Amino acid sequence: MRISSLQIFNIARDSMAKANEATVKTQEQMSAGKRVLSPSDDPVAYIKILQVTDELAGIDQYLKNIDIAENNLNLEETIMNNVVGVVQKMQEIAVAAGNTAALTENEYKAFAAEVSTRLDELVNLLNSQNANGDYIFGGYKSAAKPFGGDAFSGFNYQGDDGQQFIKVANNTQVAATDSGKSIFLDTKSANNTVQTSASPGNTAKPPGSISIGQVVNQGDYDKFYPEDIVITFNAESNLSPPGKNFTAVERSTGRVITANQAYIPGEEIQLKGVSFKFTGNPASGAPAIAATRLFGAEALPAFPVDFTAPNNESFTITVGGRTERLVLDTNIASAADLAATLNSVTNGNANRLANLGITANIQGFHMPQGMNMTIANGTANTNAVLGLNSAAGSTSTDGQSAKAGDRFFIESSEKQSILTTLARFKDVLGTYDGSQESKDAMSAVVASTIKNLGNGLTSVVDAQTKIGARLNTLESTRNLHLDTQLASKKVMSDLQSLDYTEATTRLAQQSLILQAAQQSFIRVSQLSLFDRL
User: Fold this and answer.
1) Pseudo-torsion of CA 65, 69, 70, 76, nearest 10°?
2) Which residues in the chain show pLDDT less than 50?
3) What residue ranges define each of the domains in the chain, with the CATH number in brackets?
4) Cis peptide before 241 (omega within 30 of 0)
5) Which pTM does this prediction carry?
6) Torsion over CA of 411, 414, 416 and 421, rounded to 10 degrees?
7) Nearest to 427 by CA among 241, 183, 180, 154
């Protein structure tokens, strides 16, 4: 077989290239400290390495999540401890305030000042933020301050009931926040109590306010409970002389509790055992504009028409979905005869008009409440005496119902927040005057305050217990992740780490082969027929 010079060169080139490639590969492995640098190095090991890498990345993220949750819960626990301290201090003052026989008005005012300061401190604690600026007790609405209001009109919760959960393992989520409503607002009250509020539809600017309220006669209120009170400011013309006034009704039945009561800003009002005050300038309502349908509005009345038996005829009047049928049963020769027949007790027309709230005189029909009326279902004869199209239907258009002014609510409740308890306690402390009535009120409020603060403290401690359980869960989950991480790194090391002793030996061998190939090529490349001549 003959071997050309070109073949010799190609064989030498390929041999040196393979030897060089193997040498470079080994050098790269030694430089990276890894045995598997590409899928072709070990396909099975490469797939396993990718799986373990993903697992380690997931563990790293879970560990970061655990740190975030732990930081939030530790901060929340610290705030809870401060809240407990405030509540316990208020319990001490409540116990001391019960000694009405020894304490003076000035001492009670000093107590009121301290309660006010502590109340502000408590509100600030409940509006605490974490390192990201999120409000801890706002639920899902963590961007806005959850607790607003003041000690006069009461405190309101602007967050929601949600809890923000953080995933700390494949099948494990831990609540990193708590709703302030469930901890601080939804606290069982010692007695049936109330919550006051203004309707969001009120129009006064600046708005009028209703005080936080106080149950001053528990027996009277218990008889009324669980009904609610709706207070509406009426048209000022309801009073004589005209002035601001309001009406209070029972929400479920509409039964009037007090009507057209004159409004005096800051004056104490008592309804059904509940004491409260209004301040500001609530918007008054607008009076009703009476609806009228005058006789002859559509045609000149035609008299006389004899409706005596057996010629009785009738027509209907409808107001607000209620209909009554009026009878014409006399000889009507004038508007006075018509008015007399419509107001007759004998034929029942007077009662029917009263049922509708309508009056009738020689001019026509009048609806003082402002609801429009429709006269219909009559005949040609009723058309003639009324001067109205009573057959096809004739409707008034000038009536306007009264418009309610600002509204306020006193709603029954079996819950009382810690903030409300302290606000009511502060109010009684500040108004103590040493009278027997004041002492009785103080004794009652002190008793309920002690119970309600105890209930609030129980709610806070329960929340602390749950936080502790979550922190334990985070700790055990972290330990599990760290153990898994260690095992995964061991697997990764076994799959990927380079044996430097073996690699060094292999590199020396590959270098020797490369050198041999190079030396051989040099010797072979010098072979020529001319060298033998």
Assistant:
1) 170
2) 1, 529-530, 533
3) 46-187+434-497 (1.20.1330.10), 189-287+402-415 (no CATH), 291-395 (no CATH)
4) yes
5) 0.72
6) 90
7) 154
